User: Fold these one by one.
Assistant:
Number 1:
Amino acid sequence: MAESEDISNSSSNSSSREDMHFFEGVEKLLEIWFAPNPANKNADLRKIPRPMWDALLKTVRCEIISFTRNDQIDAYVLSESSMFVSKRRWILKTCGTTTPLQCFEPLLRLASEIAGYSEIEDLFYSRKNYKRPELQVSPHRGFEEEVAFLDSFFDDGRAYSLGAINRDCWHLYTLSRGGGGSNKILKRNNHVHQLHHDHDAQMIEASMQPDPDQTIEILMTELDPKVMAIFTKDECSTAKEATQKSGIHRLIPGMIIDDYLFDPCGYSMNGISKNGCYMTIHITPEPEFSYVSFESNVASSDYGELIERVIRTFHPGKFIVTVFANKTSMAANANREIEHLGTIDQWKRRDIQYSRFASYDLTYAQYCKYPS
């Protein structure tokens, strides 16, 4: 997260601190997989040079503040959250009043002209409901607007909302592809582009099992103020001190951590491992609107222990868990596992939903600290 913003409220009757000082910790998460290009075996998103990423992120209203890489993945800590770049997967996660969808068209150009990709294989756009949606800017002023924006590019997009829409909920936009039903078309402003996808490539794609893939997110609110104090300059002078004092370094062993402590408060970190796994955590510590997100693609047949480690680290009042997993993933049975996690320590599950898509299964669950 970035430094908190001062916001003047137009209502003269409201003078609370929250009205004058607020930061939206909830992130917008965009993940895009580009299809292998049979005509260009060397296609790679990591070919896109740093100045071009800098320019792209200006359209999102954020900037790069730190960078780490290994043979599998490039990881960027941003002024508002994170970006991850692999050979054919791109992830952008941004908080505040950023506009990640605004960079979609420039990204497609870079992917085609620099990286060597001509087709999107899959796309996921998701976020929790905002605490203060009225502060967002177009095209992120509401989920309906975000869906309309993405529908202007895709004729096979589908939008979903999970959870209680009048309380905590989670929105998702993805593509309805698989089973031979895709026509692989992008559209924009009545100008339709047929992406290259020859018959041989279709045959190869149909015969291949997908690589195992999974993502777990834990989105936490109403956090323990004593824990949140760690992520302020009053309590810790460096990011490393906050990482160690909070126990973040113990959540997933073996990660190379790149962390940043904002002034006067706020914290972001990326972790990457040699096998291409990542983790990322972003913290808005102010008591009035505290928020923490945890995300990783680490593979597991039992996420229960990881979920417990995360919530014991941050002590939220409420949290949402989402798990995406494809058919070849170790986490393919996550829905059954989370179904049996009715209670986790002091937290009781209030909601659970399960969705099956063409390539992935999704499990959503919401927990509250009881007797809340």
Number 2:
Amino acid sequence: MLIDSYFNCIIEFLTQCSMKRQNVRTLSLVVCTFTYLLIGAAVFDSLESEFEAKRYDFLQTLKKNFIKKYNVSGEDFRMMEIVIIENKPHKAGPQWKFAGAFYFATVVLAMIGYGHSTPVTIGGKAFCMAYAMVGIPLGLVMFQSIGERLNKFASVIIRRAKRYLQCSHTEATEMNLMLATGMLSSIIITTGAAVFSRYEGWSYFDSFYYCFVTLTTIGFGDYVALQNDQALTNKPGYVALSLVFILFGLAVVAASINLLVLRFMTMQAEDAKRDEQDAQNLAAANQTVTFDTEHSTSYNMQGKLLNNSNYTNEFDETASICSCTCGTRCMNHEPFADPDFRPTDIIASNLSLKRASV
């Protein structure tokens, strides 16, 4: 009973220690994330705040000059602002015809959310929420499935390339897959940036920025394709190319990011499993516990008698009662030298024979 209680206490203690290590790991991730956020806020503040102030002053000066030049009241100027802002999405053509609606549905399903076009009616807003609740999980599963197939295809290519190069290890490792998907993502982004730079008139850097923001589903909306020269109705090929870029690019980038995230999740799961296994191994180890009794009996952690324990039955009639350390026969050994001798007088007595400690 005492041994069982001791065993259970060890299991509980090691389990608690493992949970504490997991808590420390989680707390470390939270601290690192918030530290990263603070660093990002500080960098963006130093890079953007001064330019923002200058831009605001410039716009206010331009507004005052416009009001003064054309003798426009403040209320009329605000009305002009509303008209200009509301009219901006219509430069691409009808936003809610089939082509524009399909583009909007793609943006919703991919969780990009440019904000260039939004539903206005109550029915449109309600349907948008219901559509997103079903479409977003469906899109995630689709992108994940495509990413897995891409990873499988990449692993086959990597194995064949390693065999062709006669490498000693021909298996495709996680690092190989991450490098392959990362290279494919880079190719898609750089190629898409060249295409959008040509069709939209943006600089290559701005186009690269748009592709990165789109495929990472950030979707600021400061740069949105298909919003100029009635592109939704007049350029169907360009519309199809943009949709293919978004869907295929999201699948590739999702595969790359998922490999990276799964790598860290696997490491965490392996650590937790290793901690649990160490706890079980330590608790179930064949550790000897010796009780200080007159028999000096040894038990393992489960309370079982060890096979090599120096244990002799208290009533073993064949045990020697001699406790000397002599190397030759003494007077105590002489009676036992005769094989026909039996200590019947001792056996018949009520004395119990015990093994002497040497």
Number 3:
Amino acid sequence: MESSSKTESCDISETCNGKVDLEEAYLPKSEGTVSIISRGNGLLCPEDFGLFQYEGFWYHSFYLEGVKLAQEQFKPQSTDIFLCSPPKSGTTWLKALAFSIVTRTEFDFSTNPLLVKVPHDCVPMLEVDIVKNMSDRNPEFPLLSTHMPYSSLPKSIIDSGCRVVYICRDPKDVFVSFWHFICKARPEIGFVPMEVIFELFCQGVSYYGPYWDHVLGYWKASLEQPERVLFLKYEDMKRETSVLVKRLAEFIGHPFSMEEEIEGAVERVMDLCSYENLSNLEVNKNGRHRVDTPVAIENNTYFRRGKVGDWKNHLTAEMVQRMDRITEQKLGSCGLMFCGDSKP
């Protein structure tokens, strides 16, 4: 499966009503393959969030180092299963579900590590955990995760027989979640009005963004080789959880037997990994993730609401129209849309 080229129909640098315009307000300075955008006119800019542009996508400097290391050195096993997603799109839920499915014969549901660890500590992240020591891996555990866009995945992954599971979400909900995340996870920046983050997001500036480019890369890959790339939408997962949990299990090579289904194993996985259960666990209410790193974060930051359509509580009609227009321009011609009522 060949890596898709940079998405050709995705121009999202439309006018930003004078608030934030990356082309006009900031002067790019080149440092090798990484574009650093300097502050202009006192406006909020990507570097305020520690963001750097690399291969057409925006990365926090902490993750960018790992991305480049992975591209240069990572050697996958043919049995590896990559859980891929843009941030704020259902990553935590997907990790919990996949981990619970893969380890269900190893752990009783009452002793599953998910009860005492945040899902991000159960599934190692390629550009953070794996690159620290690539030889220190459990060869029997197939799950790895990444936020890397498809076009930036190490060539070794593309050329291997690895399976990829991708989850994405309505960009309106992604944006709202991203804004809340910024306000909570980056207190040194201070409170940032939603309108400011909205302008940046619409221009593609977010962690591992542009969001639409990220989604489109994996969507095209799933169309080209559906036996290797499973493409999931958060909204579908919420609506048809049982059906898609079984599809996920089958795709990653751990299908539920008829006996397991009769005994309620699918429902137990769903209950263990539900937002209601995970968000109320002590570790997820009071624990911390990636301590002693520049991106240390409270575990409860990963559990805000877990609802579909929360954007209706935050976005104006003008915001909805603009984001829907970008989504149609970016994804509509490829047959990918996010279903749902777009009335705020």
